[in-house]
Write a structure and sequence with these properties.
By secondary structure, this protein is an alpha+beta fold. It contains seven helices and 21 strands. It is globular.
Length: 283
């Protein structure tokens, strides 16, 4: 935190969000501060409501608009494509389940993501992302799409070795799934413009080579069913984001890799993987 000339305290972004753009010809680093709500970046020093500066509101860009989508929670669906269940060696008869990532794990299109610590098996998983404009509990499938504001493409970045180690001893997956910058998400497109996609190619390229290539029609649970099932477990609200699972072809990531993904009719996303941040980084 610093104090500006007007006496206002200014929130200092984490180190990976402060990365400077690379020189021409190299991967562009999109500074995520342009996606954050400025009202939450600058807090009055005279505002006594909080004992610390209020953290910035995580947001997702909206395609073709200066406005953004504020993120409340990120929910993820596990094992929602049959071939991915098989490649992970799991029982394909088990229903999908849910886990979460922190809202501030969101990374925008064009950003450089630092290679995370503690892992030697860093993986990509391309997914359709659903953004909710309303919610509730026990939402019937017939009403579920009424809650959807729009869609985007995202990547569920995963420390696979830590995820599997936790799974094997029946511990939660957070250490493998819910780390910093683990949820790159491209610009949202409103459902009022593109409808509610239930089929279409979903693809991820690593350094120009196709690694994941599936179709939304291959999802075991479709979007209305996901919303229905999740709302039986937790109350959903506007600002909630759901990552709907990944097709087969997940794989390992190295420093310097460029990941490009697309959901047909929805949008695109590209990020590059930067070096691990090893030095002390005060928040």
């Amino acid at each position: 935190m610093r104090i500006d000339r007007a006496g206002a305290s200014v929130y200092r972004l984490p180190a990976f969000l402060r990365a400077r753009p690379r020189s021409a010809g190299r991967a562009r680093t999109a500074h995520p501060s342009r996606f954050l709500n400025k009202a939450t970046q600058i807090m009055s020093a005279e505002d006594g409501r909080y004992v610390i500066p209020q953290p910035p509101q995580p947001v997702i860009a909206v395609a073709g608009s200066a406005k953004t989508f504020p993120v409340r929670r990120i929910w993820c669906v596990g094992r929602n494509y049959l071939e991915h269940i098989r490649e992970m060696g799991q029982d394909e008869r088990e229903p999908p389940f849910f886990f979460a990532k922190p809202a501030d794990a969101v990374v925008p299109d064009g950003a450089q993501v630092p290679y995370p610590p503690l892992t030697k098996d860093f993986h990509f998983e391309v997914e359709l992302v659903v953004a909710l404009k309303s919610g509730g509990r026990n939402i019937p499938t017939s009403r579920a799409l009424d809650c959807v504001w729009g869609y985007a493409v995202g990547i569920d970045l995963t420390r696979r070795d830590l995820q599997i180690a936790s799974r094997n001893i029946k511990r939660p997956w957070e250490i493998g799934k819910a780390f910093d910058a683990s949820a790159p998400i491209g610009p949202l497109k409103p459902a009022s413009e593109i409808g509610h996609p239930n089929m279409g190619r979903i693809v991820l390229k690593q350094n120009g080579v196709v690694k994941q290539d599936g179709d939304l029609s291959q999802m075991i649970w479709n979007v209305p069913e996901i919303i229905n099932q999740l709302s039986q477990q937790v109350g959903l609200e506007a600002g909630d984001v759901i990552m709907t699972g990944t097709p087969a072809g997940v794989g390992q990531i190295a420093v310097g890799d460029r990941l490009e993904c697309e959901v047909e009719g929805v949008g695109r996303l590209a990020v590059t993987i930067g070096p691990m941040e090893k030095e002390y980084q005060p928040a």
